[in-house]
Amino acid sequence: MNSPQTVLITGSSSGFGLLTTRLLLEKGFTVIATMRGLEGKNAQQANEIRKFSEERPGVLYLRELDVTDEVSVDQTIQDILDTTEGIDVVVNNAGFGIGGFAEGCTVDQMKRIFDVNLFGVQRVNRAVLPSMREQGSGLLIHRSSVMGRIVIPYAAFYTATKFALEGLTESYSYELEGTGVDVSIIEPGGFGTGFMAKMEEAGDMERVKTYGALLERPKQIWGSVGEMIEGDNAPNPQDVADAVLNLIETPQGKRPLRVVVDPLTGGEGAKTLNDAAEQIQHQLLSSFGL
User: Fold this and answer.
1) What global pTM score does this model have?
2) Edge-to-edge, what's the strand order for the sheet holding 89-92?
3) pLDDT for res 199
């Protein structure tokens, strides 16, 4: 890097967002760590990030940002653009999960998870892209999941948001070709970040109870996954932060569209689907003269 790049990260209070924030501060980046409840529920996490940054070469800015609130997104990003030399990288990381039987999850729950995991990405992109296109450079990194390619039962709404995010991101990659703005997707597998502990249950439990003998299936599947990602040989979630750093440091125009990070299973399922999709898309776009 000729000069420190400015990286905005959503959902920086925990998990991959926090790990990425810490890594980039250690590497000397200017990091705009955003989250909800900066002075409220996430005040302790914010203070810990501040303390961590004090002895690191990077520069930290903490900003309140709610990806479900368009005014919050627009005002925060405009303030950042007004007070810095610009935003070079956006890591769209904010998200949450809902587990259990899809039928038992309410429409309101579905609306809310799409509002965060998908619409939130669009709000951030719309706020930041004009400045990136004007400066002729930029990088959007969207944190998807291997569950944006394959289906693990009993997480239907989370899976649906990630399938949708995959389509949105790939579309952006074609539309931004030639603007200097790169787009990449990170597809993590299972990691012990506390994500599963925070997953919501279905809101209509009375309906779920009517599944009778099938009620234990979600616990059987996700219980075994939880054991694998929390055990002694569990994969290190730092691998995902490292993948983000690698994308940032890869030269413009050379970044891959998709990066699978799944040491637990090797990620062969997602990789196989990605390779097949790439070939099909190449043939399709070529037939259109693109």
Assistant:
1) 0.93
2) 59-64, 30-35, 6-9, 89-92, 138-143, 181-188, 258-261
3) 81
Token pair in block for residue 36: 């909800």
Query: CA-based diameter of the chain, in Å?
Result: 62
- Taking the C-alpha atoms of residue 113 and residue 102, their distance in angstroms, rounded to an integer, is 13
Where exactly are the structural domains of the chain? 6-287
Contact (CB, 8 A) for 239 and 19: no
Judge whether residue 136 has pLDDT over 80.
Answer: yes
User: What architecture (CATH level 2) is domain 6-287?
Assistant: 3-Layer(aba) Sandwich (3.40)
Q: Which of 12, 13, 145, 184 is catalytic?
A: 13
Question: Does residue 144 have an active-site annotation?
Answer: yes
Q: Is 162 a catalytic residue?
A: yes
User: Residues 263, 269, 272, CA angle at the centre, nearest 5°?
Assistant: 115
Pick the catalytic residue from 12, 72, 144, 173: 144
Residues in the chain: 290
Catalytic residue list contains 224: no
CA separation for the pair 157, 111 (Å, rounded): 10
